Amino acid sequence: MSDYYEILGVSRDATTEEIKRAYRKLARQNHPDIAGPEAEDRFKEITRAHEVLSNPEKRQQYDMGGGEGGYGAGFGFSDMFDFFAAAAGGGTTRGPASRTRRGQDALVRLTLTLDEVTFGVSKDIEVDTAVLCEVCQGSCTRPGTHPTTCPTCQGRGSVQRVARSFFGNIMTSAPCSDCGGYGTLLSDPCPECSGEGRVRARRTVTVNVPAGVDDGTRVKLTAQGEIGPGGGPAGDLYVEIREKAHEVFVRRGDDLHCTIEIPMTAAALGTVVSLETLDGERDVDIAPGSQPGHQITLRDLGVGRLNRSGRGSLHIHLDVQIPDHLTDEQQELLRQLSVLRGEERPEARISSAKPGVFQRLKDTFAGR
Q: Do 218 and 302 have their domain in common?
């Protein structure tokens, strides 16, 4: 049995880090691409020694004299796993793994005004993401070079070995530790992306936000996320909408609500007031005898309906202002009015509770 410690040139009490350093040094010196094809056997011997001594379980078995073979000494838990996998799959492998993979999805947040979500808007946003490396164009290697075939697995991405079990010898397969299962080595990786095939950058993306989106809605931009490793296809970009509160209008679904204050006399006699809406200035007719809390509805002045035609309504709530400071002349005029209306000494009357009252209270406490 070969002395793996002697092959790597380390002592028997060497640490795992010392073993790795020794292996990296010897592997560079004896790599067939550097030392020539005649060094291939030596390279495989060094790789096998490292595979055993860098694994604590295998190293313990080796130090106990079990070597590489023999059930109970060299046939550990990982080998048992390989055995059952091979028994189920016939020992076949799927081939080398691809360095090209799909990129991750990304999420950004975009704050919009009420005007923008009402009518829809097109926005340019900047995102920090992974983009294709312009130097290697996703090949991961320095321009003019190519990945080299892994000499350990001969490009298969996996290595096979014979293990002894209760059932006799069986061929097992595991990803190649030298190339990571890719079947190739990046002997000269791209200096710009360090062999990733992509780099981090800030880029501008245009998002078209439809009318009627709610706070928290996510707009999906297909293939606008991160470019994958090895120049793989991009993931998706999700833009989460945040709606900024308006100073005047409150949104409830597709409808808008606002409150306007009018004097008591205007509510009693009726009037026309001007209101600045999202569509410009509009005249609002106040009917004579309007009561506090009275609602006036203006159709099609609300928020655009998402993925549907038309818009919601604008609901105007009246807040009738009762004067609390009157001049003597004003007080006298109100006394005359109360006489004319027979209200000098009004009797308190308890009115029946109407659904509208409870609904307004519910809306108030619910913050609607």
A: no
Contacts of 118 (CB under 8 A, 6+ apart): 211, 212, 278, 302, 303, 304, 311
How far apart are the C-alpha atoms of 251 and 257, rounded to whole Å?
Answer: 6
H/E segment holding residue 356: helix 355-366
Q: Based on the domain organization, do 110 and 212 belong to the same domain? A: yes
Yes or no: say if 336 and 328 are a contact pair by the CB < 8 Å rule. Answer: no
For 258, 322, 366, the CA distances from 266, given in Å and listed in that order, are 18, 11, 30
Q: Which amino acid is at 184?
A: T
In a domain, 47, yes or no: yes
The b/e string for 232-258 (b: 16+ C-beta within 10 A; e otherwise) is bebbbbbbebebeeeeebebeebbbbe
pLDDT (tens digit per residue) in 290-299: 999 999 999 9
Please tell me whether residues 320 and 338 are part of one structural domain.
Answer: yes
Please report the pLDDT score of residue 234 as a whole number. 95
Whether residue 304 sits in one domain with residue 225: no
Query: How confident is residue 223, by pLDDT bands cut at 50, 70 and 90?
Result: very high
Contact call for residues 165 and 75 (beta carbons, < 8 A): yes
